[in-house]
Amino acid sequence: MRPIRTFNVTPTLPPSLAPLKQLAENIHWDWDGGTIDLFKRLDPELWVSSRYNPILMLSTISQDRLQAVAEDGGFIAQMSHAVERLEQYLQETSWYDANRQQPTENECYAYFSMEFGLTTCLPVYSGGLGVLAGDHLKTASDLGLPLVGVGLLYQEGYFAQYLNADGWQQERYPINDFYNMPLTLERDAQGNELRISVDYPGRKVYARVWRVQVGRVPLYLLDTNIEPNAPEDQDICDRLYGGDIDMRIQQEMMLGIGGVRMLQALALKPSAYHLNEGHSAFLALERIRILMSDQNLSFSEAQQVAKASQLFTTHTPVPAGIDLFPPHKVFHYLGHYAAHFGLSHEHFLALGREVDNDNESSFSMAVLAIKMASFVNGVSKLHGAVSRKMFGGLWPHLPVNEVPITSITNGVHARSCVSRSTQELYDRYLGPTWDSADANDPLWDKVNAIPDEEIWRNHESCRSHLVMSVRDRLYKAVKERGGSHLEMERAQEVLDPSILTIGFARRFATYKRATLFLRDVERLRKIVENSLGRRVQFVIAGKAHPKDIPGKELIRNIIHFTRDEGLDRSIVFVPNYDIHVARWMVSGCDVWLNNPRRPREASGTSGMKAAMNGLPNLSVLDGWWDEADYSKTGWPIGSGEDYEDQEYQDEVEANDLYELLENEVVPLFYDRNDHGIPRGWVAKMKAAIRLNTPAFNTARMLQEYATLGYFAASDRGQRLMAEGYAPAKALSNWQSELHHHWQHISIGEIYLSHDMELQVNEPLQVTARIHLGHLQASDVLVEFYQGGIDIDGELQGGQATSMVYRGQDPDGSSLYNLNVAYSHSGLQGFSLRVLPQHEHLSSPYATRLVLWADPDNVRIVIGHVESPSLAQVGA
Ligand SMILES: *Cc1c(COP(=O)(O)O)cnc(C)c1O
């Protein structure tokens, strides 16, 4: 019989279990092991089959089971403890309370990201960028920062990976059921769905807003999958990194423009905006538009305000990694902004171009983000240097080392990536603050006091857990694709819980060279099947982007290789790498392997997760590892060389990898004392814990973002908005005058007290005559720029020192002087330069104007300054 009506009937939570809902709705549980234990206890099988989703569990669990736990005193007590912990966490005074002096009123930092990797049951991330963004939110909550996340909610998220019998990656797109996920629909005062709209060519696209509560921090996600959007507009939030270039622009419009409108609709007024990668850079256009219409500002005035309060973090070390859009498409989708701003076609497109009058180049989201930010950073020291070079074209007159792009090295959220038993071990020996303690905290000395036996036994149990979990996952994967019984049996026999286990898990992009270790079959076989019984196994995981055929070929090559060589029990590929698999692997492997082509790995974070679990890293000196204490906490592959010839590089580095495994890693691991403990190995584990945990956790990272970025950006923005935006107007006015008159500045005579010979530290007096034209002395900074001379005759590693303004001569020229000295011997030199200066300018580099003395045209005078207005300055 066909029903005339259907209902979705969910279990009734007995009143005494009401707190379970409160616990499930705040994903704080993801990094509170005690609450995870509680959900497991509720129904261990359902916990796994729901993909660790407590909301789904509560809507599908049997009523009988609920009644049973409601009468279980032990369960109720455990639940009460979990609620107490959550409530205390939400209320405790924070790092922010203690460290932020004079916050602006209702201070709020908006953090925009295309993806967020918070927990397994919210699959709206693809990899490292997303997991980093997730850790950013969790840590902002830990530190009590007034931060809100902004992103998109994808109906299908990123794909789930499985392999066909041939080892070829297949993609599945499970539909996300938002109502059974830790999401709350935002509503307006009347209780209706809160909605925003964004203008697309010829139509409006609407979105509703979902909130994920991340401890104290809300993450708001936009969802276009609603009426009255046309089906193709509903699809804007279909898949992460799924569509063509039009889809990409449409998604980025929704993220940037929709995100700003959403914050407005939520009545939030962020004092700083952080762009995590360039995807959200259109937000600057919308902010400027709003400032212009609401505050009656000009484009340039509004831009000053937007820029002062925006921060941009770049994550890619290669131009190919940057979003570039064809200019006509940008104009098609966003041309109405040009009209609103009163900018010509070319002036508008120049916002996303490195060189202003270049009318050919694509529109770069990274360039737009940089031009609209007053703080820009890369994600490791090495990546900062690479970024200064990559974007140096925006400051063609600055030496590369002065390009104003700094670095804040990534980190990972300790409570999310360290296994439960290991956290308990650290809690016991180091105290509960180890997860955020800085490197100088004396608690790190206590790492050495943890008995070797205890660390080792704990680690061995993590390894066993990994092996069991991998077998289970493989078994299910074989079963799902209809594999034979024999195959299913074999899946349950892979790996050995007692042997040296090397982990490699990351996106299968070719530059990461997942198959480097397969280069020499016989040598690898000898390592794996070690004739002295010192065997080695590999656990490998990762997804290739659906369109990345070479990436998929790498996966297939590994599968074919292990089958052909009969090594499929010792070299195992785990399908569908996600946050959950990552957590098993970074805690249960013994060594974490990483061999990207330097400097392609901007930072890398999985190695940090491994280190916090006590794993030594075995890695090419790239990203974060380049700045770690790599010989104490692991092994470096190579010594940071750059190669021209990739084939040769692979040969050299594969050889280095084999040698390290044969001569260092394997012997150290198997060198056991009478109790079976590898003392030397455990010493390396302890060094990894002690040195890498404080250096590479997100507590350190977020404190840097706050003190260097958020506080200053909020204050800068606030200052420009004071007194009805008077400072913004003044700055904009000054800047247009500056651009107008800059070309008339010239550098006149330079008077020196010495000719060609100087001794180390001997004072040299320098006086310079500068013709400022219509500009005032207060508008500029005159700098003496000194350094050594390299073999090409260029100044190297120059140091700039401000010269002191001494007054003006009747001819209108201004005099500056300085006493300097050289602390190094050898061939040294100097130059002079003029930079703009204004009290509201975020930095002297912000206008991108610099005037250098022209070596071919400058006049040097040895001796006295002829200056009527100066008695005798300088020489
Ligand atoms: C940590 C993590 C990553 C990033 O790893 P990298 O070392 O930066 O490549 C990717 N995916 C998942 C699921 C992770 O947990």
TrEMBL record:
Keywords of this entry: Allosteric enzyme, Carbohydrate metabolism, Glycosyltransferase, Pyridoxal phosphate, Transferase
Segments forming domain DUF3417: 13-122
Function field: Phosphorylase is an important allosteric enzyme in carbohydrate metabolism. Enzymes from different sources differ in their regulatory mechanisms and in their natural substrates. However, all known phosphorylases share catalytic and structural properties.
Source domain of life: Bacteria
Reaction it catalyzes: [(1->4)-alpha-D-glucosyl](n) + phosphate = [(1->4)-alpha-D-glucosyl](n-1) + alpha-D-glucose 1-phosphate
Pfam families: DUF3417 (PF11897), Phosphorylase (PF00343)
Record-listed E.C. numbers: 2.4.1.1
Gene: glgP
Listed name of the protein: glycogen phosphorylase
Similarity annotation: Belongs to the glycogen phosphorylase family.
InterPro entries in the cross-refs: Agluc_phsphrylas (IPR011834), Glyco_trans_35 (IPR000811), Glycogen/Maltodextrin_Phosph (IPR052182), Glycogen_phosphorylase_DUF3417 (IPR024517), Pyridoxal_P_attach_site (IPR035090)
Keyword Glycosyltransferase attached: yes
Cofactor requirements of the protein: pyridoxal 5'-phosphate
Keyword Cytoplasm: no
Root EC class: transferase
